[in-house]
TrEMBL record:
<keyword id="KW-1133">Transmembrane helix</keyword>
<feature type="transmembrane region" description="Helical">
    <location>
        <begin position="63"/>
        <end position="82"/>
    </location>
</feature>
<keyword id="KW-0812">Transmembrane</keyword>
<feature type="transmembrane region" description="Helical">
    <location>
        <begin position="135"/>
        <end position="168"/>
    </location>
</feature>
<feature type="transmembrane region" description="Helical">
    <location>
        <begin position="102"/>
        <end position="123"/>
    </location>
</feature>
<feature type="transmembrane region" description="Helical">
    <location>
        <begin position="215"/>
        <end position="232"/>
    </location>
</feature>
<feature type="transmembrane region" description="Helical">
    <location>
        <begin position="356"/>
        <end position="383"/>
    </location>
</feature>
<feature type="transmembrane region" description="Helical">
    <location>
        <begin position="255"/>
        <end position="275"/>
    </location>
</feature>
<protein>
    <recommendedName>
        <fullName>Citrate transporter</fullName>
    </recommendedName>
</protein>
<feature type="transmembrane region" description="Helical">
    <location>
        <begin position="435"/>
        <end position="453"/>
    </location>
</feature>
<feature type="transmembrane region" description="Helical">
    <location>
        <begin position="317"/>
        <end position="336"/>
    </location>
</feature>
<feature type="transmembrane region" description="Helical">
    <location>
        <begin position="287"/>
        <end position="305"/>
    </location>
</feature>
<feature type="transmembrane region" description="Helical">
    <location>
        <begin position="395"/>
        <end position="415"/>
    </location>
</feature>
<feature type="signal peptide">
    <location>
        <begin position="1"/>
        <end position="27"/>
    </location>
</feature>
<keyword id="KW-0732">Signal</keyword>
<feature type="transmembrane region" description="Helical">
    <location>
        <begin position="37"/>
        <end position="56"/>
    </location>
</feature>
<keyword id="KW-0472">Membrane</keyword>
């Protein structure tokens, strides 16, 4: 152990020293557009990504892996310390500005601690008489709908994953199904930044892009539902635990009253954007549904108002820590992007035969999403301009976006994956391994579809 620690210490000291020595030697033009490097330079550019991926699979802390890859990118791309500092100061605020996941996580924890989810599960347990597979399918539908309507997979998973774990435990197929549902939802959602980026580069309205991709979204969501249903039925899982004394003696009416805050929160997350659009004003904005849910916790459960608010504040801790962590990691990913690594990967698609250009681009997007999928919108902003320059149609760009999204569901640093890892109380490497077969199969299907329809 001591020898291993000394090796890591020496490596980090050497890397940092080399960074300081190199900072003034290499110069980079900050105004220069990122271009795809060619030949041997392209191979060199993607080495930091490979190093990060290897280190993550060896369970090295994501920030240590990112730092090593980032320093390599600085040396390869001639990025100065001033530029690196600029990346750092911009990346963290960009992640912490993701208000909806923070709010959803915080208020969901208040609902959870007040017993709202436990009451709901007790009701379901009494109602479906052991048919847990139907609940698994319903959980996948919730994940897809919440992500599609809010445009953010991580925020939805923060609400739904603890509910799923408390009900049926950590079923690998269910986790994979939720991941797939989230990926295809936030890349085709009318409310997501990902859809905005695709529509801008595809030169179409967001609504038109969403309409075009809806059939594919529904198809993959249906597949995810089947996977979740299959996993629960195959493993013959039962509801976790027995009814506690606190809930065993409650009537169904009392349990339903305790569940009302959870119902309102889920309704607001899933249907809030639609309701706001129909009304023409934000009735169910994060501010209003947070206040409404806290008041309902006070009215419908045994929590005092002070305790409800305290639970909400405590609930924000996990997501804030993860967003901060991912923001630092994204600093190093953006440095790698500056070297042209992502452009080099996707530019390989130009060499593919004409009929395979779109599938090749989809696969390239998937490959980028695996090591770098911390925040898919930022990755799309780096890779889609290269893809768009090939003259892709909007639906082809949408397939590439879905490919990056699916790749992110094998990423150790993706926010949705972090939320699933936390909600199901599993190490994230186990979530990645469990997702492998099902996400891989979805990517294969997407490649076939992109070959037939582009």
């Amino acid at each position: 152990m001591m020898k291993k620690k000394n090796i890591w210490t020496s490596l980090l000291v050497f890397t940092f020293t080399f960074l300081l020595c190199s900072a003034q030697v290499f110069a980079a033009d900050e105004t220069m557009a990122v271009k795809a490097p060619q030949g041997f330079k392209a191979v060199i550019a993607i080495i930091p990504l490979i190093v990060i991926l290897v280190l993550l699979f060896k369970r090295v802390n994501m920030l240590v892996a990112g730092f090593i890859g980032g320093v390599m990118a600085m040396i390869i791309g001639g990025i100065t310390l001033a530029q690196a500092n600029d990346f750092f100061l911009k990346a963290i605020p960009s992640m912490l500005s993701n208000t909806a996941p923070i709010v959803n996580s915080a208020i969901a924890m208040a609902v959870f601690q007040s017993g709202g989810y436990t009451a709901a599960l007790t009701l379901v347990k009494r109602g479906i008489k052991g048919r847990v597979e139907f609940l698994a399918a319903f959980i996948v539908i919730l994940q897809a709908a919440a992500t599609y309507m809010s445009g953010i997979g991580g925020g939805s998973a923060m609400v739904i994953a603890p509910l799923a774990f408390a009900a049926v435990g950590a079923i690998p197929e269910l986790i994979a199904a939720m991941s797939i549902a989230a990926a295809v939802s936030f890349t085709t959602s009318p409310a997501s930044l990902e859809s905005s980026i695709v529509s801008k580069l595809g030169n179409i309205q967001v609504a038109q892009y969403v309409d075009t991709m809806r059939i594919y979204w529904l198809a993959f969501v249906a597949i995810a539902i089947v996977i979740g249903f299959y996993g629960a039925k195959k493993r013959k899982v039962l509801f976790q635990g027995e009814e506690s004394e606190e809930y065993k003696n409650k009537t169904n009416g009392q349990l339903f009253k305790n569940t009302i805050p959870a119902i309102v929160l889920l309704f607001s997350v899933i249907f809030g954007p639609l309701v706001n659009k129909l009304l023409g004003f934000p009735l169910l904005s994060p501010l209003t549904y947070t206040i409404i849910t806290l008041v309902l916790i006070f009215i419908c459960t045994e929590f005092s108002l002070n305790k409800s608010v305290d639970a909400m504040i405590d609930g924000s801790t996990y997501i804030l820590v993860r967003l901060f962590q991912v923001g630092i990691f994204l600093t190093f990913i953006n440095m790698i992007g500056k070297t042209g690594a992502f452009a080099a990967i996707v530019s390989v698609t130009k060499a593919a035969p004409a009929a395979f250009v779109v599938p090749a681009a989809v696969f390239a997007g998937f490959l980028v999403g695996v090591p770098a999928g911390a925040y898919v919108a930022s990755i799309l902003a780096l890779v889609l301009p290269v893809i768009a320059s090939l003259g892709f149609s909007p639906v082809a760009l949408g397939f590439v976006a879905m490919g990056v999204g699916l790749g992110s569901q094998l990423s150790f640093v993706n926010i949705t994956m972090q939320a699933l890892s936390s909600g199901f109380q599993l190490p994230i490497i186990d979530v990645v391994k469990g997702n492998g077969k099902w996400v891989g199969g979805s990517v294969l299907l997407l490649l076939i579809i992109s070959f037939l329809v582009h």
